Amino acid sequence: MEFIETILWPLRWLVELVLMVWHQLFTWVGMDPAGGATWVLSIIGLVVVVRSALIPVTMRQIKSQRRMMEVAPELKKVQAKYKGKNDQFSREAMSRETMALYKKHGTNPFASCLPILIQMPIFFSLFYVLRHASENTVGIAFMKEELTHSFNQAEIFGAPLKMTFTQGWETGNWMVVGLLGLIMVLMIASQFFTQLQIMSKNVSDETKNSPMYRQQKIMLYIIPFAFLFSGIAFPLALNIYWFTSNLWTMGQQYLVIKNMPTPGSDAWRARQARLQAKGKLPVEGGGEDDKGGSAGPAPGQRQQPISAKRAKKKK
Question: What is the rounded distance in angstroms from the CA atom of residue 165 to the CA atom of residue 236?
Answer without folding.
Answer: 8
